[in-house]
């Protein structure tokens, strides 16, 4: 007796239209997710940058407690070392500090700069941290944070020009501000910060790809017919004005800025850290870089 034919079960695959719809949905989800992931990563990097500033502010306070003054940006005839070399013992870097040489010129201490210090590098900053454009500095690491020597411009309260040391200026390097905190052979103390430590910038962030004057983090200055400031920078130009590389500036007036969207970090002398918007009024910005101008607008 003949058996009826078994029913054949047929499995249907995805049609082309269904496949395209699924791909489109996945694309939309990825498009929504990626900005959120990038924003979360940037938030983490920005937090790390802020923490770096806090560590430097703490090291600065500890240095002041020990030496009863702020560290000078350099000292003639002492290896021309910068601010951050002097802060090494207060950044848990005693081994590096013991290798510092105070004889000769800056080249003597370049071997120290072969060691990158994460505390001096913003995670959102340039991927290539090594200095490759300056003589004798190949494979050295730079810093993304700089001491505040003062503002360049006009005091909005007194309408007077902020003070400068014109004897140390040159056309190629730029002005030399003196109304800030870090100076050559400095003996300034917290008592000199008349405007208040919460109103005065101590250290600012300069960490973007197109900046042309990165130098080894060990260096303090270069002197040739004028002083080039290497571990501190004047506050003259708006934040992020040079970020796209289309703005001409000099060593001393390296415009502060960063790859954090919309501004950069500023470490105040009271140890606090503030994200400063690139849209800040320049009168208020320069006021925050002055230690004794009488203007207390703050950031």
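^ Assign residues to that structure.
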């Amino acid at each position: 007796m003949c058996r009826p034919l078994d029913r054949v079960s047929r499995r249907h695959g995805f049609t082309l239209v269904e496949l395209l719809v699924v791909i489109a949905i996945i694309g939309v989800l990825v498009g929504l997710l990626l900005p959120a992931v990038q924003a979360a990563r940037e938030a983490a990097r920005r937090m790390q940058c802020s923490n770096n500033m806090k560590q430097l502010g703490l090291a600065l306070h500890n240095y002041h407690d020990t030496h009863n003054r702020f560290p000078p940006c350099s000292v003639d005839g002492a290896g021309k070392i910068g601010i951050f070399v002097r802060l090494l013992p207060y950044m848990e870097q005693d081994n590096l500090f013991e290798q510092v040489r105070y004889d000769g010129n800056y080249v003597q201490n370049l071997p120290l700069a072969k060691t990158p210090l994460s505390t001096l590098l913003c995670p959102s900053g340039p991927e290539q941290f090594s200095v490759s454009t300056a003589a004798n500095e190949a494979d050295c690491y730079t810093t993304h944070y700089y001491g505040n020597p003062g503002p360049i411009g006009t005091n909005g309260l007194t309408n007077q020009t902020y003070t400068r040391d014109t004897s140390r200026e040159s056309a190629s390097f730029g002005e030399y501000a003196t109304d800030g905190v870090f100076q050559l052979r400095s003996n300034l103390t917290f008592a000199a910060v008349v405007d208040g430590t919460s109103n005065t910038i101590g250290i600012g962030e300069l960490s973007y790809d197109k900046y042309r004057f990165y130098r080894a983090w060990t260096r303090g200055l270069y002197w040739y017919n004028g002083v080039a400031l290497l571990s501190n920078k004047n506050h003259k130009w708006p934040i992020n004005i040079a970020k796209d590389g289309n703005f001409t500036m000099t060593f001393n007036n390296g415009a502060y800025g960063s790859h954090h969207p919309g501004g950069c970090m500023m470490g105040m002398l009271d140890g606090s850290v503030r994200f400063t918007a690139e849209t800040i009024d320049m009168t208020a910005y320069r006021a925050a870089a002055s230690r004794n101008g009488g203007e207390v607008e703050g950031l």
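The chain has a mean pLDDT of 87.
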